[in-house]
Design a protein that fits this description.
Blueprint lengths: L3 E6 L5 H8 L4 E7 L3 H10 L4 E3 L2 H5 L6 E4 L3 H13 L3 E2 L1
Parallel strand pairs: 1-2, 1-4, 2-3, 4-5
Length: 92
């Protein structure tokens, strides 16, 4: 079995999670989502995340994704968690 394939929702608040994932051999961040395109591009480059999107549904439909980390403002958590669970993903 290969590394756990993770998507992160929220580029700025996701920085601690991206750093932690980078240090794990068995975890790979394969996608990042944020509506702030400038922040999204900068963080995706910094952490060498291959897919950067502004729409959570695009992130949730990435082939091979195992789980998502929701690191967005609290008032958005419910929406993202429900969508991720409906897509059959694990959520942190």
């Amino acid at each position: 079995m290969g590394p756990l394939q993770i998507g992160v929702l929220g580029a700025r608040d996701g920085l601690p999670y991206l750093k932690a994932c980078r240090d794990c051999d068995d975890v790979r961040v394969v996608a990042l989502c944020d509506t702030d395109t400038e922040q999204l591009s900068a963080v995706a480059r910094q952490f060498v995340v291959p897919v950067a999107v502004t729409d959570d549904e695009r992130l949730l439909n990435i082939e091979g994704l195992d789980a998502v980390i929701v690191s967005t403002p609290e008032h958005t958590h419910r929406k993202f968690i429900v969508h991720a669970l409906q897509a059959g993903l694990h959520v942190y």
